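Why does residue order matter? Because the sequence determines the fold. Keep that principle in mind as you read this record.
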Amino acid sequence: MSMPASSSSSRLLPNILVTGTPGTGKSSTCRRIAELTGMVHVEVSSLVKELELYDSWHEEHDVPEFDEDKVCDELETRLAKGGHIVDFHSCDFMPERWFQLVLVLRTDNEILYPRLEARGYPEKKITENVDAEIARICLDEASGAWPKEIVIELASDNAQQLEENAQRTKSWLQNYCKQHSIPLTLPTPE
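Structure:
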């Protein structure tokens, strides 16, 4: 996989969005990328709950129905600083200018189903998420919201792929910083 160079002339570290159907490994991937790069991981679903960035509660799925404007207002200042890796299952409401790379994680349904089942999701919620993965909802949202050259689809079926995806993202970040003359100090290896 080759990752795109950005055309942005900003001297700030880039922001990266990681999106995908629930259960595809967004949070785990973002945590690993943050460990490797020192980027700040922003888990939007946690922010929605903690800061009450919602107007209503979806009783059937027992989750908040986030308010796009409230989420954008909360993220605007954070992302203006650069150096953030954002994880969320929905993305087409976020401004294009925020991200220089968009990673869409995809998981085989024979793997995704048991992951969601292990989380204790009700059968209807599992089926809806598996159907969303089959229909490529997150990939289509991202592809429709950002230039195709910055949207990268990645397999996320196991720990090896997670590590490969994180290492590739680290390499992309290093190349981005080199191309844009941005100083980058990565955390020391474990």
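The radius of gyration is 16 Å.
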